[in-house]
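Q: Hi! First time doing this. I have a protein sequence and I read that you can turn it into a structure. Is that right? Here it is:
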Amino acid sequence: MSEAKWNLVPLTPEYIEDEHGGYVAELENALKNDEIRNIALSGPYGVGKSSILRELARRHKGRVVELSLHLPNASLRQALTASLG
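A: Yes, that's right. Below is the predicted 3D structure, encoded as structure tokens:
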């Protein structure tokens, strides 16, 4: 049996200034506003959410809490959304 060669690439977050810098800048502006207590960053898989949050956390050590939540089931998403109001 021959061994198949796979071209696997890591999917670990990678910050790319040209792609993510504008989002980080806007989040930094939001952090300057004392009235803003919660910030949600959402989007489809692979658009750079984790990369953006990791860069923000790196720049603001001790001020950022990273929470990752994945709801693969649409009914779970709807139930959570309804329960949060």
